[in-house]
Backbone:
């Protein structure tokens, strides 16, 4: 069993995609062990995306991710980290596998609907950044 951090980004929430994405997660068989709608502070956004701080798109990325409510999700399941990344598809929707969330619902890299941790280390870090211990099911 593995846990990962998933997020429906502001574009996905704004476009009413939350039920569709939660349905895909549940059909897949992952257990939702944490779930909340929230607006991300600038500080949390800059920490979350800290690895991209020097990239030219960093400012836009922080503006975008703090620009409206997101849905933060803690998922649990077998190989949940790579499995959720596979369900999302590649970062650039043009390269995302057919049937993946980003292929089905996004057209630009900047607004690509969902986030997923990319390694066990980032999953632990991101779950800790977005959820207090008491907010996650045992
Ligand atoms: P991922 O979200 O697939 O983990 P990432 O960690 O490389 O991708 O980048 C984080 C987010 O930053 C990504 O979802 C969208 C944005 N981003 C990445 N590369 C970008 C680019 N070249 N132009 C604009 N936004 C970009
Ligand atoms: Mg990433």
Residues:
């Amino acid at each position: 069993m593995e846990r990962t951090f998933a997020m429906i980004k502001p574009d996905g929430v704004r476009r009413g995609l939350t039920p569709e994405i939660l349905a895909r997660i549940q059909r897949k068989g992952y257990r939702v062990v944490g779930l909340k709608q929230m607006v991300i502070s600038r500080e949390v956004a800059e920490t979350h995306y800290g690895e991209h701080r020097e990239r030219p798109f960093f400012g836009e990325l922080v503006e975008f991710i703090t620009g409206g409510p997101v849905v933060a999700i803690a998922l649990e399941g077998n190989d949940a980290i790579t499995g959720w990344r596979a369900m999302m598809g590649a970062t650039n929707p043009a390269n995302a596998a057919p049937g993946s969330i980003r292929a089905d619902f996004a057209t630009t890299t900047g607004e690509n609907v969902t986030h997923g941790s990319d390694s066990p280390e980032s999953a632990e870090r991101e779950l800790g950044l977005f959820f207090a211990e008491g907010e996650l099911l045992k």
